[in-house]
Structures are given as C-alpha cells and as structure tokens.
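stage 2 :: seqdesign
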C-alpha cells in the first residue's frame, strides 16, 4: 500500500539542499530575507530569539528547533532588541557553510531545501509558515540523532560527504513533519493529521495507491466502513476538500511530475490516471494547472534546455 506522505515528498523533488552552522557569542543578531524554500534550524547549544515570524518574539533553548516554510523574512539573535546584520550576505561572503561571531556560546545548525515546482502545495496548505519544535516533543529524540550526524558531517571531508548531508537533511525534514503530527490537534483541519484518522487515512491511502481506479464517494465510503454521507462530511472536515476534488488534485500532481521528469504519450498518461479519453484528461489538467498537458510538457522541456525564462511548475 502507498504512504500518502511519502508520495508527496517523493514528488516534491527536493533540490539544492544546503547545510549551515552558526556559532555566536555575546550580543549578536542576523536577519534573513524571505525565500521560497523550507528551512530547518535547531539549537545545539545555548539559546536564541526568533523574530518576524509571529506577533511576539519566540525564544528557543538548547535542543529546541524550528521549521520555516516559505516564510517572510525573519531574524535570529541573542536578544529581540539587538541590531541585525544581513545574515544572507554574511553566509555568502564567508565562502563556507560555517559562520562564527565571536565564539561558540550559541550554536545553531540548519538545513535549507529548495523544492522544484509546486508539488509542495499539500504541505503548504496545512503547515504553518513557522513551527517551533520543543524538547518535550515525542519526535525530538530521533530528530536530535539525525542533527548530530549532520553536524559531524559538516566538519568532515570524507568521500560521499555531500550526498550524505543531502540524505540527512531530507531525514530532518521528515522527522520535523513527524514532530508536527505529534502536536497537531487530532480533529483539526489538516491533511497530515487526517492521515492518522482510521477512516480518512485509509481512504487517502487507497487514492494514492491506485489513482487511476474509478473511485466514487460511495465506493471509498464502503471501502473504509462508513456511510456515503458520513464519509463525505468527515473527509471534507478533516482534509478541507471533497474526496473527488482531492483525488483530482492528486492525479494532476502525478501528471505534472510525469510530464516534467519522464514524458509519456498524453493518451497513456490519461489512461493511467483513470480518464476514459485524452480530451477528458486534458480538460481536467487545464482546469487545475492552467495549461493544456502538451503545452505544459513543451514548457518544461524548454525550461530544462535553458530556452525558457519562465518556471515550469
């Protein structure tokens, strides 16, 4: 059976993982501009303040961590009121993944993830732009273990180092998502928390496992042991979309991924995703994506060859 979260993460095509380390002492502050990426940072030693992500500054102590998702600009500092230097410029000019500001009273390590296209949308729709992970979170032990391995790799030049850091950074992302699931309200509107719902999670798994099947609301309801009306209402309440609207979006994510990475005949793609004809698939694709499948595929091919200035999403 498919794992919906793994499906989404695999389609995300995480690119350009960058790992950084900040060592600081005394009075210090760095500001970072808004960026379309995921950013994970943990406090290995000391403490710091995060500003710009909420109405009030957020204090993080040793062992705490935070996840930023396409957030606005933010600051990290020894004190919320300290003057901020340009952190982006500082890391660029350092020509290293380590920046030292006077000492190592406070040590932060982070990983940044740039995601190709818009396949992050299922997570963006449910995750806050800023999420603090405290030391009492059940998922923090596994996360800390991965962080320590990543920290050790930062100072080594062993063979396979870049690949090792990329895999460890991806593990950090998954563990951070698990940490979010551990604190999310079980009855809240969240695609991720819905995966833990016995009935709705089972329905999501069915749709992800076989998106080309001719699913109906009644068929999904029967498969997970609910009446049609109860299932439809519960699915909408937990996921935020009607079951077949979710299925449509998942099919189109799969279609975009295929057209970007391994182009196939449109007719075959239509059949694989459960459409009776190429025209029916093309209509659905254009409704969701805004382009016809052939036009989308051509745009992606041109972008890959460097002949298009617009992004293929």
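stage 2 :: out
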């Amino acid at each position: 059976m498919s794992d919906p979260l793994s499906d989404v993460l695999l389609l995300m095509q995480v690119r350009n993982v960058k790992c950084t380390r900040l060592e600081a002492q005394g009075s210090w502050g760095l500001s970072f501009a808004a960026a379309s990426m995921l950013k994970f940072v943990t406090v290995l030693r000391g403490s710091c303040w995060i500003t710009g992500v909420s109405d009030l500054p957020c204090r993080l102590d040793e062992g705490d961590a935070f996840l930023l998702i396409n957030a606005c600009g933010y600051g990290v500092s020894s004190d919320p009121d300290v003057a901020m230097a340009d952190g982006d410029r500082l890391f660029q000019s350092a020509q290293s993944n380590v920046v030292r500001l006077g000492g190592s009273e406070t040590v932060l390590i982070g990983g940044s993830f740039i995601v190709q296209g818009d396949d992050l949308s299922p997570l963006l729709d449910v995750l806050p732009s800023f999420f603090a992970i405290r030391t009492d979170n059940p998922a923090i032990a596994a996360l800390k273990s991965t962080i320590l391995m990543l920290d050790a790799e930062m100072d080594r030049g062993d063979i396979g180092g870049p690949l090792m850091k990329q895999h460890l950074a991806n593990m950090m992302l998954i563990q951070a998502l698990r940490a979010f699931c551990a604190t999310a309200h079980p009855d809240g509107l969240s695609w991720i928390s819905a995966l833990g719902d016995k009935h709705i999670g089972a329905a999501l798994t069915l749709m992800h496992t076989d998106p080309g099947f001719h699913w109906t609301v009644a068929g999904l309801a029967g498969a997970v042991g609910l009446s049609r009306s109860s299932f439809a209402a519960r699915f909408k309440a937990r996921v935020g979309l009607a079951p077949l609207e979710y299925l449509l979006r998942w099919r189109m994510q799969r279609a975009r991924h295929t057209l970007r990475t391994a182009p196939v005949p449109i007719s075959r793609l239509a059949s694989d995703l459960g459409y009776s004809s190429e025209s029916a698939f093309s209509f659905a694709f254009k409704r969701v994506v805004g382009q016809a499948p052939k036009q989308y595929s051509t745009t992606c091919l041109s972008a890959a060859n460097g002949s298009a200035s617009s992004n293929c999403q």
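stage 3 :: structure notes
- Residues 15 and 114 are 5 Å apart (CA to CA).
- The longest strand covers residues 14-24.
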